[in-house]
Amino acid sequence: MPTPSLRFCLQRISFLWFGFLLFAFIKPVQAQSSNDTLRIETSAICGMCKTRLESELGFLRGLKSAALNLDSKLLTVVYNSKKISPAAIRSKISSLGYRADSVAANPKAFEALPACCQAEGMHHP
Q: What percent of the chain has pLDDT above 70?
């Protein structure tokens, strides 16, 4: 049977070991979650635009979700800021034929959009 001082010492060692394991395994999980939210004004106007933007953006590495509100024309994007930048997201939207805030739509991509998606014109505010 261990003496009281030995028992106390063993408890402290167990407590410190548990604390180390807790810190070692939980801290990396917290460090990986560097998600940010970005709201981008787009020139998207219809359901086809919404489907195209949300599905194509889903292929971007580091992008967690994309949801377009057609009434406000705001695209809400949740992304990992360590893997992709807001500029890269806006560039991808432009390459799909849509304006992304102040980034103009790619003219060739815009011309390739269905007629309903071009209804308000390429330079619509």
A: 69
